[in-house]
Amino acid sequence: MKFRAKIIDVGCLNHFTRVVNTVSRLTKACVLCSGVVASGGVSMWCELSQGNFFDEFQLEGVSADANEIFLEVAPENLSRALKTAQNAKSVKIKLTKKSCPCLTLAAELPSLSSVSRVVTHDIPVDVIPRRLWHDFREPQMPDFDVSIYLPPLKTMKSVVDRMKNLSNYLVLEANLNGEMNLKIDTDLVSVTTHFKELGNPPWGDDGSQSSSPAHRDPDLMAEARVEIRKLQQFLTGQQVNPSRAMCNIVDRRILHLIFLHEDVSLQYFIPAVV
């Protein structure tokens, strides 16, 4: 079982660091699945395109018929290690065996002399046994009632931050006419922020969902009541700068957020509360 990868391009290194920083702000532990990052396989799933990040990538899995490796790691530790590598000439990541299994990150730093400087971090990991791999597969997209593009994330974050001072819970509702509302309702105050003309992703055209909501009344709202803290955490933590951001609502059950970049996809599931 072997794994090693190398990043040379500074842009790729900075982008990889932003992805890791985003994950580290959302969870204390995650599982690396042969280049895929997941948190429990349920609440968050982040997938990276290996070819767009790593100049070299070598992997030998647990066996010939299971060419994968699943590692549990604290993303905060990986994030801290990458902070020392922001101006590095190259970064190598390798699975090693020290006193325990580790991801060894070696950053070659610029030097004024002919002698190179290398900073090495050993990040402890736990190897997930094969019998548990099924717990960390990409979750299936739920058959949603409404899917809608999100407004500018900075605008949405600003609204959510203000609402957090008034309530612990928020209702996000949307319809198939590109309309979305953020609402709070307490004994003391009721506040609603309206967004219009956001657009609805054409999921039904590419078969991404088994049952299209096209038969649904376009004006009918689907909603999910969620903890503001969880939504705020996701909006605050993301550093991926997605080219597309959308939200799927399974009415009164799940809020499914999707951020897409050309080489990164990030899914976040927030269960609704009664």
Automatic annotation (TrEMBL):
Q: Where can this protein be found?
A: Cytoplasm, Cytosol; Nucleus
Q: Name one GO cellular component term.
A: site of double-strand break
Keyword tags? Cytoplasm, DNA damage, Nucleus
Source organism superkingdom: Eukaryota
Question: What does the record list as GO biological process?
Answer: double-strand break repair via homologous recombination; meiotic DNA integrity checkpoint signaling; mitotic DNA replication checkpoint signaling; mitotic intra-S DNA damage checkpoint signaling; nucleotide-excision repair; response to radiation; telomere maintenance
What family does the database annotate?
Belongs to the HUS1 family.
Q: Report the PANTHER family cross-referenced here.
A: CHECKPOINT PROTEIN (PTHR12900:SF0), MITOTIC AND DNA DAMAGE CHECKPOINT PROTEIN HUS1 (PTHR12900)
For this entry, the protein name equals Checkpoint protein
